[in-house]
């Protein structure tokens, strides 16, 4: 598994694999279906796929809304095949999502399971702070989630 990773816009032909990864990553929750991912693309949300050769090994999505000067983004999901975790794929996907939010100077929100220490550490390392708790956010397990936010990146003028 030393194949280089290529990150590009998510393709419709990747959606079946996205749903497969969702089931593997979130077996005790309500994983997204292929049609849920298709709906995200239909809405024009920003989705990326990480490929090793032709195999999709990770995905990530972001929505952006609002008027110029008052934009808000939301990380919908980041998932990496368990076999490919620990290689920086999730971090690379997150950075590209944040780059997109920075293009429109949007603050970025997300939810993360309170027991997902690795994801929380990743988000904190990228400027996110916990601002709230959503009890029983994940279903059907009833796991809690933190709401986290990263302020909009605004270029300083001198």
TrEMBL record:
Q: Which Gene3D superfamilies match?
A: 3.40.630.30
Taxonomic lineage from the root:
Bacteria, Bacillati, Actinomycetota, Actinomycetes, Pseudonocardiales
Please provide an example of a Pfam family that matches this protein in its UniProt record. Answer: Acetyltransf_1
Which domain of life does the protein's organism represent?
Bacteria
Q: Which residues form the N-acetyltransferase domain?
A: 5-153
PANTHER family attached to this UniProt entry: L-AMINO ACID N-ACETYLTRANSFERASE, N-ALPHA-ACETYLTRANSFERASE RIMI
In its UniProt entry, what is this protein called? Ribosomal-protein-alanine acetyltransferase
Instruction: Select a single GO molecular function from the record's annotations and give it.
Output: protein-N-terminal-alanine acetyltransferase activity
């Amino acid at each position: 598994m030393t194949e280089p990773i290529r990150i590009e816009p998510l393709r419709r032909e990747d959606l079946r694999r996205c749903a497969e990864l969702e089931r593997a990553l979130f077996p005790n929750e309500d994983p997204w279906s292929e049609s849920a991912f298709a709906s995200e693309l239909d809405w024009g949300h920003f989705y990326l796929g990480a490929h090793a050769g032709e195999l999709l090994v990770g995905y990530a999505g972001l929505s952006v809304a609002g008027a110029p000067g008052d934009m808000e983004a939301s990380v919908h999901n980041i998932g990496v095949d368990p076999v490919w975790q620990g290689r920086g794929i999730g971090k690379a996907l997150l950075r590209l999502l944040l780059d997109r939010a920075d293009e429109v100077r949007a603050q970025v929100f997300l939810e993360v399971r309170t027991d997902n220490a690795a994801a929380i550490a990743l988000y904190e390392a990228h400027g996110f702070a916990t601002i709230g708790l959503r009890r029983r956010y994940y279903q059907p397990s009833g796991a809690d989630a933190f709401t986290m936010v990263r302020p909009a990146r605004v270029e300083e003028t001198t």
